[in-house]
Amino acid sequence: MFKERVKTTATILLFVNLIVLTCRLWFGGGLMREEISDFARSLPVVGRLFHDEKISIPREMLSRPRKILINDGSLWIAYYNTDLAFSPIENRTGQIIRAFLRGETVSSKPVSSREWQAAIENVSIYVEMPIAYTTGMLCSVMGVDGENAPKDISAIRDFVILPSTGDTGVFLLVRDAYDGDNARIYQFPRESFSLPAGDLAIYTENNTDYYEPAFSTGVEPEGASLDPMVLFFDSRPVTADLIPADPIAAPEAARRVLGGFFKNVDTAGSYEDSGVSVFVENDGDARIYPGGLFEYRAVEDKGVELTESYSSYYETVNSAISFAEELWSRISDQPLSVLVSSDLTQDGGRIHITMDYYQNGRPVAVELGGGGFEPMDHGIEMDIEDGKIVSYRQLFRSYYSSGTSALKGDFVDALDYFVKEFSPLENPVITDIYIGYMDRGGSGPLSARWLAELSGDSRIYDYDGGETAENAETDNLPSPPVGEEVGT
To answer: What is the C-alpha separation between 225 and 46, in angstroms, rounded?
Structure first.
């Protein structure tokens, strides 16, 4: 009885604090992002109340934008999905996007890439999803009946929302994720949404950070091109360092993982090959490398059954996420903190799905190679055919916080570095530069660094203000250190 009263009181305090935060954000003088973080950290029992609630991080994040860029007419401000002030604006944009997917617009027409950019340079909201989706897949992940969804765009990743006026409703611009010249503008009825231009200042006031998309800066580096939506910014945050550890180093943990692939681990053949543990069964074989890399490959026409071969693409992806989460639950009582990182635009045949770890609100890139196995650029790589997993690779990782460090260099330093690195390539196009971590299988702490992506290349490139990739540690990992485990 006493515990229930304490929980009730704590819940009331939580909601009171959240109401105060929302009122200060929407109707008061605004909050700086640092103030929001400090205020949230002071809320009582936030982390403890729902500690036992299990969530599917990769499923939840599929329907959430990666970032939202707001232009109030005088400056741009970016909100990322890990920002505490992200939800209020995401709730409004999400309603508009779902209405678009339900086919509730009244008119549309093609627009040029220049018109797309002009829309972003005016009072607008730019919404970027984490990956590209077919229209049908985006309907599914956002919980929308796609029967009346527009058919003009085959792959969607981003939107531009233009505010309503006294005479017109909200406008929404959509472009093809693989063909920027194929873009359209849609208009909603005037009564559908109220999003006056003045509302956007609510989300930008009292912010002093600098953000600007590449096309607006006029920067044209020699040696490499920039995607128009590469976001320039001046933030240099102090971030937590991560210490990686191998959660399947213990034989019993490895056996539990093998149980997700083999019908009977005890009867499977096993042997050691140059420090690699090899397991063989009739339907496939598995390898466990020092450091936590796990590989499974099925023999022809075999594999781990996920779902019926006639299941929808969405159901197959959901089943793949569930499999990875169930596998992780065999060795950890924490949610699997990964995001789906492959575009969900495939149509039949063999489906390739990748996922990457996500720690402290930032991505952890993976780069493995030179250890007697195929290079690996993601935390999880999975191939599915006829409803069965025919190939599965995962760098099993737990991450522990270990102090903080300041990010070296700024955005311009990182841009200069990546342009020089990519200039020997043929027509390189930099599609993104952002802050994250790089894990090369070593045991040393991981500090935040600059990451970059290239068009047509699945690899993530990194820059640490001077440290090169060749200097990174690649030795085997130790047992989990004493410290605070994060995001496993």
So the answer is: 45
Give tens-digit pLDDT for 302-328.
Answer: 999 998 877 899 999 999 999 999 999
Q: How far apart are CA 441 and CA 292, in angstroms?
A: 8
Looking up tokens 């002009």 gives 118
* Residues 475 and 239: beta-carbon distance below 8 Å: no
Cα 270 from Cα 286, distance rounded (Å): 9
C-alpha to C-alpha distance for 417 and 23, rounded to whole angstroms? 43
Neighbours of 264 (CB within 10 A): 8
Count of beta carbons in the 10 Å neighbourhood of residue 265: 18
Rounded-to-integer distance, Cα 5 and Cα 405, Å: 41
C-beta neighbour count of 11 within 10 angstroms: 12
Is pLDDT of 35 > 60? no
| Burial degree of 89 (CB within 10 A; 0-12, 13-18, 19+) | buried
298-307, long-range: CB < 8 A, 24+ apart:
298/388, 298/389, 298/390, 298/391, 302/388, 302/390, 303/385, 303/388, 303/389, 303/390, 304/260, 304/261, 304/388, 304/389, 304/392, 305/387, 305/388, 306/384, 306/387, 306/388, 306/389, 307/387
Q: How far is CA 320 from CA 189, 245, 479, in A?
A: 39, 24, 29
Instruction: Please count the other Cβ atoms lying within 10 Å of the Cβ belonging to residue 330.
Output: 15
pTM: 0.84
CA distances 484 to 244, 253, 425, Å, are 12, 21, 42
Q: For residue 15, how many other CB atoms are within 10 A of its CB?
A: 9
pLDDT at 261 > cutoff 80: yes
The strand order across the sheet containing 155-162 reads 76-80, 67-71, 124-134, 155-162, 171-176, 179-187, 107-111
Q: Is 419 helix (H, G, I), strand (E, B) or coil?
A: helix
162 burial type by CB count under 10 A (0-12 exposed, 13-18 middle, 19+ buried): buried
User: pLDDT band at residue 487, thresholds of 50, 70 and 90?
Assistant: very low
Integer Cα distance of 324 and 379 in angstroms: 11
Please report which confidence band the pLDDT of residue 19 belongs to, taking 50, 70 and 90 as the band edges: very low
The residues that bridge with 225 in the sheet, in sequence order, are 429
CB 192 within 8 A of CB 146: no
Q: In angstroms, what CA-CA distances link 83 with 23, 100, 219, 353, 410?
A: 17, 25, 28, 27, 20
Quick one: pLDDT at residue 54? 57
State the SS3 of 151-210: CCCCEEEEEEEECECCCCCCEEEEEECCEEEEEEEEECCCCCCCCEHHHHHHHHCCCCCC
